[in-house]
Amino acid sequence: MKSCDIIIIGGGPAGTSAALFLEKKGYHITLLDQARFPRDKICGEFISPAADSIFAELGILESIEALNPKRLSGVALSAYESSFLKVPYPLSPDGKTMTSLSMERSILDNLMVDHVRKSRVELVEGFKVTDLLFEDNNVCGVRGHDEYKTRLNIKAKLVIDAGGRNSISLRRLNLKKNSFGRGKVALAAHWKGFKADSHYCYMHVSHPGYTGIAPVGSDKVNVVLVVDKTNLVKQNVDEFFIKIVLGNRMRRKFLADGFPIEKVRVTDSLSYSVKKPKCGGLLLVGDATGFIDPFTGEGIYLSLRSSQLATGVIKNAFDRSDFSNRNLATYDFLRRKEFQKKIILSKVLQRLIYSSFCCDRVIRMLATQKELSSLLIGVIGDYIPAERVVCYDYFRCFLSGLIKQQIGSLKSKEGLLNRLNFLVSSERKK
Ligand SMILES: Cc1cc2nc3c(=O)[nH]c(=O)nc-3n(C[C@H](O)[C@H](O)[C@H](O)COP(=O)(O)OP(=O)(O)OC[C@H]3O[C@@H](n4cnc5c(N)ncnc54)[C@H](O)[C@@H]3O)c2cc1C
Predict the structure, then answer these.
(1) Distance from Cα 357 to the centre of ligand 1, integer Å
(2) Does residue 363 have its Cβ closer than 6 Å to ligand 1?
(3) What is the number of the ligand 1 atom nearest to the C-alpha of 35?
(4) Tens digits of pLDDT across the chain (430 residues)
(5) 84, 221, 244, 384: which has the highest count of C-beta atoms within 10 A?
(6) Strand pairing partners for 304?
């Protein structure tokens, strides 16, 4: 039986960043992925500005920049074809201009895997983990097979599950809970021929769902449509996708002269949260720790950050030779503490977007309240702490903005009525 210090399941952003962080500490690591890279992954391909500093710490920002990737300077939002808002990223708390990377996942993930390939980490592609191995109720390795179905057990002091939303731990230990909302699916395709300011990511909310459009090249955008699963029943997926995407007046303006350059891909997009594993020897990172609706698009950052947070806790576990559930629990505590408010915000926004009345009013209000919209975009971009928005002060300003806007619109309606009255009475006098 093979053995090593740490087994990492999954070579997505969570697994590769964990491998690269931990390799620097000198552990003997094996990273297993059932896929061979480059592999595809359906995603908005829009990466929070805060990810840059983690990429830099991992030593991969330079190779990302060498590809001359698209960098976006803000986010544009529209609600129900009525209101529109374009918000540039505010400066970072230390005064830096912020931009976000927008990059095809097949390229980004492959680049990260390439760095793992060049490191001392043992990378095994085409290896599917089929079960966890246990000793005294603690995880002590994995069981799996390669592409030729050759079975292998690998032992380790610690297993990091970075297997994403269908990771083996979630299934084997029954850890998934609280799926939010109705069943959602995401449909995605890259398009050519986009006519708009290509330095923004566009979120369009309308019936029957929302889209995220992120420019990923000079003439290429990634279009992701999220709808209820029921919308797809008896539909031709490609026809449905084009019909809904171009059915929105605002999207049509950007995309009508363009066309999808690939078959539409579909994936499950339901949010869920995850229970803490009760056993030792196991840590979860990335989507294996839970998944927020992609509307606020931060999954990649959360994956990188969860691995960064795990690194300190893992080093401590090795220093003490203590891989018990109790010792590893610090990681869960740190992660929940850091992400809790952001998750609350994402859930609130998720509820908001599905109410056309509220969503339209909020977008109209934010369009006139630059400070509130900038703060919100900074928090969504993960470089302004969520506490700045999930707090009483922000809520108070938000509410007063909505009230002012409502009064303003009543006044303008009143003004319009007065003007009509005047015109009617002057006509009568004639
Ligand atoms: C529709 C949609 C749009 C999104 N848009 C954005 C966005 O714009 N920006 C953003 O930041 N995030 C976005 N996300 C979220 C983002 O894609 C995820 O948060 C991110 O991919 C999580 O990374 P990960 O490494 O945890 O998992 P993954 O990227 O899913 O990687 C998991 C890896 O584990 C491997 N694996 C799984 N099980 C096994 C096994 N048993 N044995 C061996 N290998 C295994 C898989 O092959 C895979 O390579 C979006 C998600 C969806 C669904």
Answers:
(1) 33
(2) no
(3) 47
(4) 789 999 999 999 999 999 999 999 999 999 999 999 999 999 999 999 999 999 999 999 999 999 999 999 999 999 999 999 999 999 999 999 999 999 999 999 999 999 999 999 999 999 999 999 999 999 999 999 999 999 999 999 999 999 999 999 999 999 998 666 668 999 999 999 988 888 999 999 999 999 999 999 888 999 999 999 999 999 999 999 999 999 999 999 989 999 999 999 999 877 889 999 999 999 999 999 998 888 887 899 999 999 999 999 999 999 999 999 999 999 999 999 999 999 999 989 988 999 999 999 999 999 999 999 999 999 999 999 999 999 999 999 999 999 998 888 777 666 656 766 766 666 666 6
(5) 221
(6) none
Q: Is 46 in the pocket of ligand 1 (CB under 6 A)?
A: yes
Query: Domain residue spans in the chain?
Result: 2-67+103-179+272-346, 184-268
Q: Tell me if 168 CB under 6 Å of ligand 1.
A: yes
- Element of type H or E holding 368: helix 356-368
Its CATH architecture, for the domain 2-67+103-179+272-346, is: 3-Layer(bba) Sandwich (3.50)
Ligand 1 binding pocket includes 47 (Cβ within 6 Å): yes
393 Cα–ligand 1 center, Å: 35
Write b or e for each residue in 125-146: b if 16 or more Cβ atoms lie within 10 A of its Cβ, otherwise e.
bebbbeebbeeeebbbbbebee
The answer regarding whether domain 184-268 maps to CATH 3.40.50.300 reads no
Q: Which atom of ligand 1 is nearest to the CA of 130?
A: 41
DSSP for 281-313 reads SEEE-GGGGEE--GGG--HHHHHHHHHHHHHHH
| 144 Cα–ligand 1 center, Å | 20
